[in-house]
Design goal:
The protein has about 625 residues and is mainly alpha-helical. It folds into three domains: about 10-15 and about 30-235 and about 260-405, Alpha/alpha barrel (Glycosyltransferase); about 425-490 and about 500-515, no CATH class; about 525-635. About 55% of the residues lie in helices and about 5% in strands. The chain contains 25 helices and eight strands. The chain has helices at about 25-45, 65-80, 90-100, 105-125, 135-155, 175-190, 200-210, 230-235, 285-300, 310-330, 345-355, 365-380, 395-405, 425-435, 450-460, 465-475, 485-495, 500-515, 520-525, 525-540, 545-555, 560-570, 575-580, 590-605, 615-635; strands spanning about 10, 220, 225, 255, 260-265, 360, 440, 445-450. The chain has a two-stranded antiparallel ribbon. A two-stranded antiparallel ribbon has the order 2-5. A two-stranded antiparallel sheet has the order 3-6. The protein starts with 10 loop residues before the first strand and ends with a helix.
């Protein structure tokens, strides 16, 4: 996995440890958008999906101009959004594609990337304790290899470019959009260990160097790279024989030449008889050029026979391409500038550059946050889709592209959204996780897990290991924020077909809410009340005393009762002393202890005695003095 760093004018290849975002509220919006988009695609491929206007959106082959591509991109997006390999919809998608013959560059490329995503998902599921049929795995690998070799044969040999279909010597043509997809597919195939002739990579490098804009203004190298990480932070224990491994990131020293100049030079759609820039340099095609040169560099960087002068030219091409993209994005605070065309394709193309190159920001422009915010805003919140309905299948493929961006699907790098994190330094990561609450550290398992993704995966994959992770989330989540889990747990209950998962949810909700109910709407009512209590106690807001009393009188949840008693103690209004007394008679030790502490604090009377752990008859005798005190001091 390559990370490209220019410090002044030098480059660094290092490792990416995954997505780390600090804005918890925004993170939740992103995960909610992924969930809604996934649900839309799951319904769409089964023929049950509808557009915002109520019209059906079609199934696997909804985009009829390219049925293989339509099925492949939806499968790719679903798997990258954590739908398990063993889930029936994924198996169905694989069967649909198995019956199709290659013929279209976009489609075959997406098929290769979808198959690679399935193989990666199989690795994840095996690590989570789900059995994998090795015969099926080999069949997928063979199919991926067959599609890869089709792409190798389909290229314009000697040119390093691809057309819509197989190259026709009698009518030669290529464009950088078809070429972009082919190279992305070849990149994942190479990482998977499939055989791709070295000449293919040399042709690609030479082609993009040749057709890049010849001149451009000198610019500063202002792109910001993710920091390299200690491999121990993301390194999993070595697998036993026959088990799947977890790919390690490459940690490489800085390279390149100090004090080289960077010029903003981009790429166009294709070269023609009128010249390579007849179509004009564009954002999308410059993303295509940047990702293609980055992938070619990864394939050639250790090839001793590759001439030094060509390597240097390739490095310069990469730097200048990034320089061009930086000039477009630096200084922007939102995804707002002209000439982008299909924004979903633009975002997909940019994600490839950002994650293959390990780029966190282009100047001041945080590309992922800006793109994610745009997608969160543009999603139809009711249906869960993105895009327009002017052509059949548009919603399907545009929604798939949006999901691929949000989930950071590029698998040319180390996992961008890992399911677990192993290794040393857990104390530090545990502290970080407590601050963000996006991850939870589970001491017994020695891992950190992403909360929402584990619970989402559990809906479809209730393996014993995943169940233990899910139980660990509830056990080790920051106690004061535990009710935050109610919405995602309720959603898990409603969307899973598995009884053990439903039982896990109801058991967990009893721990959180104190209410044993399978009605998730009842469980959801807990969180707003909890938030109201916390706000009242934190702000010592006397105006909220009536609401707190109502919660005490309702008494549906002992946990809410105890929190309301805490809030009244914080407010410390003498008139609420009497509200504590009934709960000092509770059969629940924790509740009567909480009530006693609150009453003692409000009364400020050391002479009153109460022993929460004493036998019931003795407690009742002690309470008589408390009731007598209340009768003397209560407002008349």
């Amino acid at each position: 996995m390559a990370l490209l760093r220019t410090l002044g004018a030098s480059l660094l290849l290092a490792a990416s440890a995954g997505v780390v975002r600090g804005d918890d509220a925004f993170d939740e919006q992103i995960e909610n958008a992924i969930d809604r988009g996934t649900e839309f695609l799951l319904k769409a491929v089964k023929g049950e999906g509808v557009a915002p206007d109520g019209k059906p959106v079609g199934g696997w082959t909804a985009y009829q101009e390219a049925p293989m591509g339509s099925a492949a991109i939806q499968l790719y997006a679903l798997v990258k959004s954590d739908i398990p390999y063993n889930f029936p919809v994924v198996k169905e998608g694989l069967q649909v594609l198995l019956g199709m013959q290659p013929g279209h560059t976009y489609s075959v490329s997406l098929y290769v990337m979808a198959l690679d995503a399935v193989l990666s998902q199989m690795d994840v599921e095996l690590s989570l304790g789900s059995p994998i049929d090795q015969k099926e795995r080999r069949a997928i690998e063979q199919r991926m290899d067959a599609m890869t070799q089709w792409l190798v044969r389909a290229r314009w040999k000697g040119k390093g470019g691809w057309n819509y279909g197989m190259h026709d010597p009698g009518n030669p043509r290529y464009d950088n959009s078809n070429t972009q997809f082919a190279i992305l597919a070849l990149g994942v195939a190479r990482k998977r260990g499939l055989k791709i002739p070295q000449e293919v990579w040399e042709e690609i490098a030479a082609q993009f160097i040749d057709i890049q804009q010849k001149d451009g203004p000198e610019v500063q190298a202002m792109w910001k790279l993710k920091d390299a990480v200690d491999a121990a932070e993301v390194d999993a224990p070595k697998p036993k024989k026959g088990k799947t491994d977890v790919r390690k990131p490459d940690a490489k020293p800085s390279w390149g030449v100090e004090d080289v100049k960077v010029f903003a030079r981009g790429w166009s759609y294709q070269d023609t008889k009128e010249g390579p820039l007849k179509h004009g340099v564009t954002f999308n095609m410059s993303c295509a050029g940047a990702s293609s040169t980055l992938i070619a560099f990864e394939a050639l960087k250790f090839v001793k026979a590759y001439p030094v002068e060509k390597r240097q030219a390739l490095e310069k091409s990469i730097r200048d391409g990034l320089g061009y993209l930086t000039t477009l994005m630096n200084g922007k605070d939102s995804w707002q500038w002209g000439g982008l065309g299909d924004i979903y394709y633009s975002l997909y193309s940019l994600e490839k550059v950002g994650d293959i190159g390990g780029i966190e920001a282009f100047g001041t422009f945080d590309w992922y946050k800006a793109g994610a915010r745009t997608l969160v805003d543009r999603q139809d919140k009711q249906v869960g889709c993105w895009g327009t309905t002017d052509k059949p299948g548009n919603l399907n493929y545009m929604s798939a592209l949006a999901l691929l961006f949000l989930s950071r699907a590029t698998d040319l790098t180390f996992h961008n959204r890992p399911m677990v994190r192993y290794g040393t330094g857990r104390e530090v990561r545990q502290s970080d996780a407590q601050k963000s609450r996006e991850w939870v550290f589970i001491p017994k398992m020695g891992v950190e897990v992403p909360v929402r993704r584990v619970l989402k995966k559990l809906r479809y994959l209730p393996t014993p290991k995943l169940m233990r992770m899910s139980e660990g989330i509830v056990e080790h989540y920051d106690r004061q924020y535990l009710p935050e889990l109610i919405p995602v747990l309720a959603e898990t209950y409603e969307k899973t077909p598995y009884k053990p998962v439903k039982k896990y949810v109801t058991d967990s909700l009893v721990k959180i809410t104190g209410v044993a109910s399978e009605d998730m709407n009842v469980q959801r009512q807990f969180l707003p009340k909890w938030n109201e209590i916390v706000k009242a106690g934190t702000e010592r807001d006397r105006s909220r005393i009536p609401q707190l009393r109502a919660i005490l009188q309702e008494g549906a949840s002992p946990i809410l009762v105890r929190k309301a008693l805490w809030a009244l103690m914080r407010i410390n209004d003498p008139d609420t002393f009497g509200d504590m007394l009934p709960f000092m008679s509770s059969d629940d030790l924790e509740t009567r202890t909480t009530a006693y502490e609150a009453a003692k604090f409000i009364a400020n009377r050391s002479g009153l005695v109460f022993t929460p752990t004493a036998p019931k008859d003795r407690r009742e005798q002690q309470l008589e003095a408390w009731r007598a005190h209340w009768e003397k001091t209560r407002p008349k």
